[in-house]
Write a structure and sequence with these properties.
Two copies of one chain form a homodimer.
Chain A (H helix, E strand, L loop, with lengths): L13 H20 L3 E2 L5 E3 H4 L4 H7 L2 E3 L4 H8 L6 H4 E5 L4 H10 L8 E10 L11 E10 L5 H16 L4 E7 H10 L6 H8 L2 H15 L4 H12 L4 H11 L4 H15 L7 E2 L13 E7 L8 E6 L13 E6 L1 H10 L2 H4 L9 E4 L3 H16 L4 E3 L7 H10 L4 E4 L2 H6 L2 E5 L5 E4 L1 H8 L1
Parallel strand pairs in A: 1-5, 7-8, 12-13, 12-14
Antiparallel strand pairs in A: 2-4, 3-4, 5-6, 6-11, 7-9, 9-10, 10-11, 14-15, 15-16
């Protein structure tokens, strides 16, 4: 009987945890410094909260929790033909952090100080087909401000994104668009009802190229005139100012479109040049967003986006609290971790295992007991310390333990050292070895 | 439609998170300093991993995850009478951290350096009847060493427990017992097959008193002679040395019993006096433990144990890796949090909300933009800073925001201050207010 774990799930070893925690800690520190506060919601939500929020496809991917109690009896008494999924499960596992957050805001609206700047870092579960880089349990890491229409929030999110990736040592491209520009485009080409078809096609530009996009537009039944009018946008290659000029020209007759351009310009006015790339083909789950749309891709790797988000105007409406505007971003921890592995950033940044700093080795009960006292002093000085727990004459075995665990320093305590009150400290990477008194040892290691 | 969460689950607000994180961080720091390394396992485990590990009662309390795919079709094709629970669910939510850890050790035995000192802080789920202090989702926080029979591990766990509660500002009593002493007792009273009945009764001494224990022993069919022989133990009131002497006398004829006393004495020899209280009535889920047994109770509150653990000799045997000895402790985060609330320790320790240090307030777009620049400098200096995001002439509203969020400092930037290059910093608790240049402001707040 070989034990295993469910497909699409993972164990994280100490080394993997050290790397992941570095990413979590980096993001959390930036969130805090910008005034975002953490919350947590339960892994299980009522299915009434989750169902219908992620489309039909999403509903299929929800993990449902079997009702406790006599489920089999329920099936027998109702009969196999009458039984419904709702009879089997009334709870499900969190599918993302956004819907539980909306639910949280509505439930706790009287305790919350608005604008509410919250972050949340917790796992989510999706019954997706597992494949490379796609898991059934993975972490999301979201920051949202809710209850403030100000574009200052968008600006700060852009600053936060850059700070995070800077600290992680990753070069990224932050693309920004605005839903209102997309709406304006659909309006001016005379296809305002087809905004979804148009933007879904535009969104694929990176993947299928101009011809592909045009083919898809034809397939979706967009008129030839409209497709013609979209060409300058699709084909456009120019800098930020040129793009804004083009858009102003193109969207002159659309109020919404002009408002979108205005928002982009206001955000840009509060940022240094190059903080974002205006990308009119960016859409990202459009139904949701009503203003700015963000997406971040890492330079130098072929991997999807590592961060994304945008403004939404009615997230909490689904739970009965309408007209609360919000804006947020979500960091994809697993992808970020993959990118950092691929680019060997953990090595560059010196993120190693979470091992102790020093191992104290010995030869018998007596010297081990001395080590225990020494360990107390070292730990009291904040030095992460291990005493090899078992008694063994084989010092080699103890060194092997230090080596495998990448513990950088080893102290050897023999009878003689103990008597002399000086122990040998060995630097495991240089091989250097020097005798020190306990006080000197602390100075060396602190 | 009022949204709600499943019974027995909880949302954690920013304030609650600040308190909980203080406890988590404290424990994690001590774990690290003693050389324990973190791992994580998935929330879902295969039911083959979980079932049969927690007794019949435990199996009933497992949350099972409904298989994805057409479950209703399966029910119809098998028929209501033929369907089994295994047809509906093959995965379940983690019930504790111990069984997943055993599974982890067996699965990863070739990558692990033994002795393996690991900690794990993750939620677990139990379909228990929710009640005060008992939840269906709660955190466990475990540290275990596996692959080392040395009592040094027990000693270090005792030290760690004291360090943790010291840092949390909680006075605790650490009770210790040894399973071998309990086995010895059952042997010498001639009831070695009844060790479970005897220890279950002894374990209730705190709750039901001497008479209650004796009644239960009678009910369980323990002989009158045996009960007589147990009286000195049950009634015993004396110090550590007297207790050891009594036990040595009583257990003279039991090899196992003598070994248990020896272990207690060896552990005591490596600790300062008063590090633990020897409690021969302590049992704690006895089937599991084979050596030391620990339990920690907080002084001054009527609440169950806040930490417990012990040595087990065959945890991984259930997954096919026999003879691996381990010892560990588990901290009950939720109870610890409750105790700290009750004793107002968060106040004493100055653990407040996770709010920013300073809010920058303004009167219009112009002064807000100045605040954005100021915020950049403050944040670059590591100061957690917020700019009130919306434009409002009502400075009162901005102060109200700072008050509600317990932000300790507010900076006011008017047109005049901006021109002068000096802004007013107000200390929200004293009401004091002084003008500072941006550089001075950083010095004040850093």
């Amino acid at each position: 009987m070989k034990p295993s774990i469910p497909k699409g799930t993972r164990d994280f070893s100490p080394d993997e945890m050290a790397k992941r925690n570095f990413i979590f800690d980096t993001i959390r520190e930036v969130f805090h410094r910008y005034g975002y506060q953490g919350i947590e919601t339960p892994a299980m939500e009522n299915l009434t909260t989750l169902e219908g929020k992620y489309g039909d496809e999403g509903d299929k991917l929800l993990f449902r929790v079997l009702n406790s109690g006599p489920v089999l009896l329920t099936i027998q008494s109702k009969g196999a033909d009458q039984i419904k999924r709702a009879d089997l499960a009334e709870k499900g596992l969190r599918y993302d952090l956004t819907v539980p957050f909306a639910r949280y805001v509505v439930m706790h609206q009287n305790e919350i100080t608005f604008p509410f700047k919250r972050y949340q870092m917790q796992p989510v579960w999706r019954a997706d087909r597992p494949q490379k880089g796609r898991y059934r349990e993975f972490y999301q890491c979201d920051a949202d401000v809710i209850g403030s229409p100000s574009l200052v929030n968008e600006v700060e999110l852009v600053l936060m994104i850059h700070e995070v990736f800077n600290k992680l040592g990753l070069k990224v491209v932050l693309k920004m668009n605005n839903r209102k520009i997309l709406t304006g485009l659909a309006e001016v080409v005379g296809e305002q009802d087809r905004i979804i078809d148009i933007t879904v096609a535009l969104d694929k530009l990176d993947k299928i190229g101009i011809e592909g996009v045009n083919n898809e537009l034809v397939e979706k039944g967009i008129t030839a005139d409209a497709i013609d009018m979209l060409q300058p946008i699709i084909k456009f290659e120019g800098n930020y100012n040129e793009k804004i000029d083009l858009l102003k020209n193109l969207l002159m007759s659309s109020n919404t479109g002009r408002k979108g351009i205005e928002e982009v310009e206001e955000i840009a006015s509060m940022l240094t040049a190059g903080s974002f790339e205006l990308d009119i083909t960016l859409a990202r789950g459009l139904n949701y967003y009503t203003g700015a749309i963000f997406e971040v891709k890492a330079d130098g790797v072929q991997i999807g986006s590592v961060c994304g988000g945008g403004r939404y105007d009615d997230l909490t409406g689904i739970f009965g609290l309408p007209n609360v505007s919000g804006v947020g971003v979500s960091f994809g921890i697993d992808r970020i971790c993959d990118v950092m592995e691929e680019l060997k950033r953990f090595e560059t940044l010196g993120i190693r295992t979470s091992s102790s700093k020093v191992l104290l080795t010995h030869f018998d009960k007596n010297t081990q007991k001395y080590c225990m006292g020494l360990a107390s002093s070292l730990r009291a000085a904040g030095i992460s310390t291990e005493v090899y727990p078992d008694i063994t004459k084989k010092i080699v075995k103890q060194f092997e333990y230090a080596n495998k665990k990448q513990i950088p320093f080893v102290v050897v305590v023999g009878e003689e050292e103990m008597q002399r009150g000086q122990v040998n400290l060995k630097n495991m990477s240089t091989g250097e070895q020097h005798p020190f008194t306990p006080e000197q040892l602390i100075e060396q290691l602190v």
